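Q: Fold this one first, please.
A: Sequence and structure below.
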Amino acid sequence: MSSSIQNEKYEEFAIDLVDLPLSIPSKSANIHATLTDASGVINNKYFIQESISASGASIKGKIVISSEKDSYNVYYDTDLSLNKDRLVIHGTNCVPFTFKNNWDETLPGVKRPVTNLVLLMGPSILYRLDHSSIVWKSVADKNIRGTMMKGATTQVKNKLRITYYYKKNFDEGSGIKNPSRIEFSGYDPTSVIYKENLILDIYLQNENYYDELANEVHPLPGIGCPYYLSTSPTPFPELRTDYVHYTMYEYIQGSSTSRTFSEIHASKKRHQALLRLKATLLGVTTEAIYDYQLGVSYLFEEGESCRISSADLNSPGIGSDVISKIL
């Protein structure tokens, strides 16, 4: 159900913005926007690109944020158990954020809570604002980037005013779904430390009825992020493993220290699982290829012919619970 616009009556709503459901009218969406401080107190402009995949059971998204000073990648999933979580990758570090009345972390270098809130929610916040719990009041037309636009405003918990503007060729119902600008003025509902005046300008909003971004919203394997390897029933975010290629050094300490260099290629597509493992230890290189569909392995050693054997419990990725299925 859509939100309503009233000319005389004005009401605030008491729901946290994060609690408003994210509803995408298509299978995927791509949004480009900028976030600036209208008051000029913070001279930092954020460039934001958000990719949204909505073809699965839950909506998944990736928010790429950059400025003159820093950059971040933010990942989210609207599954009920993950809806208030974000995974932020900053350089080679990654940090999970959780919303409990407010965000338990702030983006590195971001000191103001409303800025932090808007960046972590991304420009897709526009899809959350079309909700039945919000009552909007019309405001005077305003010149936005050289074009006169209509607008409407509301207030969150009597602290944060939100105003959006849309082109006049849209009616009220469509305008809230296609705003050219969203303004945030006031305080974070959980804090009164900093008064902020932010402008979220939306320059691109593409929606597609087929999901062309499903592979874009998942993080690539990275350094320093143990959450990829989570054994939790609901790992966040899910690491796509159709194709993986990485290199690693393994140090083994005992009576002497040895170092193994390994290069791994893995592919799992259409039930054809393959793994190629190339390792160098003490100057000797071995290479093995595992075909999990056939349940066989091929071993190549320098100066020797290829050896073929059945996959067993010593094969990478094989456990007692799956060996019988392969063999």
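Q: Good. Now the second chain.
A: Here it is, same layout.
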Amino acid sequence: MRRLLAALEEFGRPLLLTLTFEGDASDASYANDALSDFQLRVRSEFPEAQSLFVPELSPRGRIHFHGLLFNVPLHLGDTCKDRRIISHGTERTSRTLATLWGEGFVGVVQTDGSPRLAGYISKYITKGAGEIMFNAMRLLRISHGFPKEIVFRDEMAQFLANHYSQRNPTREWSRENIFLGMITRKIYEL
């Protein structure tokens, strides 16, 4: 989920989407293709858009997707507070994303861009990992150009640590790793 945290840092607040299918949606291959087509159509409408989606099965065995959409107008999404809608987004009237999806219902909600979104998405990844139907699907569907976290190791990590050691890290944690021993991670503002 480091990539999602990097995207939140780079792009800011995303929209939270739920994409469902009309009728029977139990064909994983069809769902996979429909999502790929949607991601391409979104990029043609909003060239800077980036997305991340995770499939989920409903209790009745129907596939739907939960995801985050970055670099699109936030006014499309509903504004919620404590799970209650306090203002409707323009998606309800314009149907911009629903038209691009073309397969069924689209739920769109604005987010605060909190790192908790990584936990929300990882919940669906964990849930879907045990589903046999998803064996043929990637559980995490990320658009091209989605940011990757830059990780420095060895000499470069030591050089940067010495360079930034005069500053206080913005975040720091340590934990024991059974293979590597104690790991300390420090994150600095560049």
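Q: Anything worth noting on the second one?
A: The chain has a mean pLDDT of 85.
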